Amino acid sequence: MLLCQNQSAMLRVLYRYPWRRNWNMSSDSRCLISRFSIVSAQALEADEIVFEALVKNRLSPLYNTKVVLRRLKTTQAQRRGKRAIEVLKKLARRRLMYHSYSMQVHGYISSLMSNGHSSFTLVHGHHGSFSLRHWLQQSDWLPTLEATLALDEESVRKVGDTTTGGPAVSRHSRLIRVLMRDLLIGVNYLHSHGLAHTELRLENVHISPVDRHVKVGILGNAAYFHENAENDNTTVNDLDRRQMMIAFDMRCVGFMMAKMVFQELMDPLIFTKFKLFFSKGHDPSCLREYLLRVLNHRLSSGNVGFQILDRNWGAGWNLLSLLLANKPSKRISCLEALRHPFLCGPRWRIAPSMEIIRWGLGSTAVRITEEYIYSLPQRRKLSHFIELMEMLTPHSKPKHWQELIPGKWRFLYSTGRHIGLTLRQPPARVLIGDVCLTVARDSKLNNRLSLTSDINFTVMRGRNWSHNKIGINGKLVINSSSRIQAGRRLYLKEENTVALGQPSFGESNAEHVLAQKLSSTRWRKVIPFEELPSSLPAVKLISGDIDLTMSLDIPLSEDIDAARNVTREVRTQVPPALFDLSKFICGTYVDSRLLILRSVDGSALLFTRSCLHESHNK
Question: What's the CA gap between 523 and 265, in Å, rounded?
Answer without folding.
Answer: 38
